[in-house]
Fold Proteinase inhibitor I42 chagasin domain-containing protein.
Amino acid sequence: MDGERAVDLAAISTEFVKVTVVAKAGGQQVQLAIPPQFAFLLTDTSPVEDDWLVGEWLAPHGRILIGPNGGVTTLEAGEYRLWIKFLGGSETPVYRTGTITVY
């Protein structure tokens, strides 16, 4: 998955979900050191603290492994809203980045 598009995934699949994140300071791209966090929600509500799962950076993507074979989490069938947040200097941007349909 790569931000703002719908993706279909099998519940038995284990794979990375990724979101492109480009952080800039003074017009120059910077590497973010603190891992991104992801939330997968079945509703249109905003994530709360317990919803966030830690991913990793593989520039220019934040990514998280999901699925039953070693994933950070396993998603049951449903339509999920994907959120990402990360620390960028004094800011902590939070974005809803797309939808994942798990079948």
